[in-house]
Amino acid sequence: MKRRIIIVVTLACLLLSGVAGFFVPTVGAEDGLYHTVLWGETLSGIARRYGVTVADIVAANNLANANLIYAGQKLLIPVETGAYTEHIVVAGETLSAIAAKYGVTYWDIVLRNGIANPNLIYVGQKLIIPTPGAPEPTPEPTTETPATNEAIIISSPLADAEVSSPVTVTGFGAGFENTLAVDVLDQAGMAIGQGYVIVDAEFGQTGPFTGTIEFTAPTEAQLGRIQVYSISPRDGAIEHLASVTVNLVP
């Protein structure tokens, strides 16, 4: 009888520890926040995602060459204690529900985790959740071809700009047949407008792009997002994506 009680208690502890694993505590200085490099990522893109500088990451990881990182590499991201929480997705969760749980916006999670398709998350996926009220990292506006390894950069509209339909989207990038796709998303992450921009360059080369996109304007002002991305001609997958948060107005 005593042995049976011990087994039951042990199983209960294991179950509780398993459940607790889905609610990882806020990342602290002891644990550190690490980013695993994906194919095609650059230090500038990673730094912008977490709101730090390239120099910060180089110093924290003793990197000899800021332009030389590789897929699978783990990088320590030097952020303040308590700046982020790690959440592991469980069955039935949505980005909107996760955002509401932590008191952040839907787009805070999308941007910090580089999510190409906000409607597609999966069980077991690790998401970095910023502290409520943390400023959103955004790319610097530019009017000249930037000296960067980023595949796509949006020059306009600028972050937090008021946008009404139609909106003109400009920037720099490269895409199949010199075409890049554009989505206008509302605050729920739903597409309310779609179109494309044309890259002014030799085929396969990076150059400035511009295009005008019409979208269904909301009945009242709300946060939204404009994303520009390249599509693989081989399988239709998204290869590179850039996005900017805007204020959608009627």
How would you describe the overall organization of this protein?
The protein is an alpha+beta fold and 250 residues long. The chain folds into two domains: 24-130, Membrane-bound Lytic Murein Transglycosylase D, Chain A, CATH 3.10.350.10; 152-248, Immunoglobulin-like, CATH 2.60.40. The chain is 20% helix and 32% strand. The strands form three sheets. An eight-stranded mixed β-sheet has the order 6-8-11-10-9-12-13-7, with no helix packed on it. It has a three-stranded antiparallel β-sheet with strand order 1-4-5. The chain has a two-stranded antiparallel ribbon with strand order 2-3. α4 crosses α5 (106-113). It starts with a helix and ends with a strand.
Number of helices: 5
Shape: globular
Helix content: 10-25%
Q: What value does the average pLDDT take?
A: 76
% residues in beta strands: 25-35%
| Count of beta strands | 13
N→C terminal distance = 70 Å
What's the structural domain tally?
2
Task: Going across the biggest sheet, name each strand in turn.
Answer: 6-8-11-10-9-12-13-7
Give me the strand/helix succession: HEEHHEEHHEEEEEEEEE
CA-atom Rg in angstroms: 21 Å
* Uncertain regions spanning at least 5 consecutive residues: 1-30, 138-148
CATH superfamily of the largest domain: LysM domain
Largest sheet: 8 strands, mixed
CATH topology of the largest domain: Membrane-bound Lytic Murein Transglycosylase D, Chain A
Give the CATH level 1 class of the largest domain.
Alpha Beta
